[in-house]
Amino acid sequence: MSAQKSIKLSDYTEYPYLIPSIYLDFDIGDEYVVVQSSMIIKPKQKVSSKLILQGNQIKLLSISINGKELKLEEYSISDESLIIDTPPVSEFQLKIRSQIDPFSNTSLEGLYLSSGMLTTQCEAEGFRSICYHPDRPDILSRYTVRIEADRELYPVLLSNGNEKNSGNLKNNQRRHEIIWEDPFPKPCYLFALVAGKLNSVSDIYFTNTGRSIDIKIYVEPGDEKYTKHAVISLKKAMKWDEDNYGLEYDLDEYKIVAVRHFNMGAMENKGLNIFNSKLVLADSKTATDDELERIESVIAHEYFHNWTGNRITCRDWFQLSLKEGLTVFRDQSFTSDLHSAGLKRIEDVSFLRNFQFAEDKSPTSHAVKPKEYIDIDNFYTTTIYEKGAELIRMLQLLLGKEKFFKGINLYIKTFDGSAATTEDFINSLIKGAYLEEINCPFDLTKFLNWYYKAGTPKVYISQSWDSKNSILNVSFEQKIDCDTTNKNIEMVIPILYSCYSRKKGSIPIAEDNLFVLDKNKMSLQIKTPPGEKEAPVLSLFRGFSSPVLWESDLTIDDYLYLFLNDNDYFSRWDSGQYLMREIIRTRLFNKANQSLEDRFISAIKQSINSLEINDPFFLATLLTIPGFAELESLLNKVDPINIYRESLKFQILIGNEILQQLRILAKNLFVKVGHEWPMGKGERKLLGIAWSYLTLAGDKNVQKTCVESISHYSMTISRTALSALKPLDNVNTEKASNLFYNLWKDNPVVLDSWFAYEASRPNKQGIDGIEKLLSHSKFDWKAPNSIRAVLGGFSKNIELFHSLDGEGYLFMAEKLIQVDKINPITASRMVKIFSKWKTYVEKNKEGMYKSILKLNQANISSNTREVVELILK
């Protein structure tokens, strides 16, 4: 087994050539595509340097410089590259004619076939599968693209930029051509091409300056009716970016294409976004409220990349979070402004804790700015995206919004049209905010540790009350838990806090004050009004002001107080999450805390009374138990089946204890769920929570109502009903599942949710049931959505996947080996479900280890092998 070559940030060297312009010609045939590239190349120095171009599965047909064909001895070619040893030392034109086969390409990288449509995915290194090129993000060029194809097979031909001209070929009326020109320089990973039988839906957006932008969404025939939400979402994003960042769209056309076979959610190719069809084709009948909001957010995310990613790109892939973290922060802000900032913050924190924090504790943990990688595709992670966004959010909090936006403006003005680094961004931000870096109010070097160090920092907090002087003394200590060698690394940790008097109905003593922890140990004094007899209640990390774990000496009484009274959405929810984690933790050790459970149930009842009408969505959020990954993190030795069973028992307890209130709640809500999204989403969310608790409590009438609701005109209600019945494995579950399948068997986007449901629900068929899903006539092995639905759903089927005989793990390993042969990127991402094997109890640990070894001994791709070897370390 040959060692895999590691790419290191420290080895970065500037490419010795500029490529200011590229002309690409695509001749699409029946069995292959002929690609001709014509590049203007400018040496940066007046000395000859090797010209190294990357290439993967390309057949070279001819190569010339300034019109002169190169001899065989003038260049060398391998499976991975084409090298010209002594190119000219002055500007020259390089023409390469080559041939590729997209029709047998299952990797979904480069140019490939999806449902009769040719499409591209070039990020991160897919362009090298299309034509010979340096294929690195710091080479920016202006592209002109000509596409020629059969008019009947490929009536629509698309690429980046604006259309220049099109028409039938004079010498062959069966074929047609089109020329696209992108006036803005871009890296090759943003190149896009689509050819196929597509229909379009058109609209127009008028910018604040009065320019009109043609919007076109291309879909397969019959899917036009599902695009309205995407169009509206895009126009909202365009308006928001102009109003908040002063950034206007720069081309005449904005095109989106929906593709069934796509590894990612979407891709921000300049002027021609390519989307996973699941994130375009939707309305309230086919998508849930959460999915509609997700689509709105992703549409915005890819649009926002036009400036933070496209106009300014990454110097190298180690800077990936420069574009992704910043753009996630922007799309999160967009959603917060359109909906509820407090609820959006809770949603983002919950996701971060259940996925990114778990990643930080796993063998695949890495820094936001990693130092090395083998396959960059393995670094499209929650650390790069979500943690990266949290760092931007901290900078906004530390600088204040006004100064933050001054810094953003300077960054865009300075680096527009170029490839930048993380440090370029941070330095621009500080310079724009304060003119001189020395005026920055926090230690910039310590803040950059957030980018350079892997792991989740932990903050330890203790309090002492000086009743004589009415002062609350608070001590803080910071450490990085995941790596003991880094425990003394000092980070900049902004802590937003408030302080409440214990007197009933009192207002905060101190509200949303900012304390910056930038040393290993620091202390804070909070002065309270004279006469306070008891220590006030401290509300910490309000709005989740830093992506850290913390441990404090707050009491159960403090958490109950905050759960009922805190005016910060996040802090109130977080207090409830702490109490629920504590209840489940004690149950896991067979030491149920009856007093705590009774008091928490009482607090839930009070919350229902105060929030049912005023804020149903927030109430639903308060009633949602912590995620499975969070519960796993409570234990040094994880017994996943025991966690699943005890959390289920806790939910049954809640359902039984507030049975009557839930029944009244469900009855009142059911008549209010008919409003069109986003109206009514709080009522629908709360109804789903109520149904879940009631079905677990054994309410037969609600179970029957859930079956009847499968055919509801709202997909949210339909899927909510399915979800409520899932843990039961009874005749109602079976009826509901069959009904849902029959309703949606001809809609592959919706049917993926059925595959995920069937794979994740407990049932008597066991592994055989998963095998049947994988061999189902509607299952598509080439569609990552389908694979993620079944195998991802199976991994959430706790008692089956984690069965003590290890059969679930072995089955997963076998299937991922199969997936790897078709699509290495999808396989390498899914292999991470084995990353926590060392944390499990011995029996599970042993079974999972055997399965990882099975993967390691198989003939797998470099993508998947990198992850497997990290997991085994």
Tell me what you see in this structure.
The structure is a single chain. The chain is 41% helix and 22% strand. The strands form eight sheets. The protein has an eight-stranded mixed β-sheet, with no helix packed on it. Strand 7 and strand 8 form a beta hairpin. 47% of the residues are buried. It has 27 helices and 31 strands. With 873 residues, it is α+β, with helices and mostly antiparallel strands. It is globular, with a radius of gyration of 28 Å. The mean pLDDT is 96. The protein starts with 6 loop residues before the first strand and ends with a helix. Among the domains are: 1-197, Immunoglobulin-like (Sandwich), CATH 2.60.40; 457-565, Immunoglobulin-like. Helix 24 packs antiparallel against helix 25.
State the separation between the terminal residues, measured CA to CA.
17 Å
Mean pLDDT: 96
Return the CATH architecture of the domain at 1-197: Sandwich
User: Treating each run of at least 4 consecutive H or I residues as one helix, how many helices?
Assistant: 27
Low-confidence stretches: none
Global Rg: 28 Å
Strand order of the largest sheet: 6-5-9-3-2-12-15-14
Name of the CATH superfamily of the domain at 1-197 = tricorn interacting facor f3 domain
CATH topology group of the domain at 1-197: Immunoglobulin-like
How does the major sheet shape up? 8 strands, mixed
Structural class: alpha+beta
Q: So what's the overall shape?
A: globular
Helix content: 40-55%
What is the highest CATH level, the class of the domain at 1-197?
A: Mainly Beta
The share of residues in extended strands comes to: 15-25%
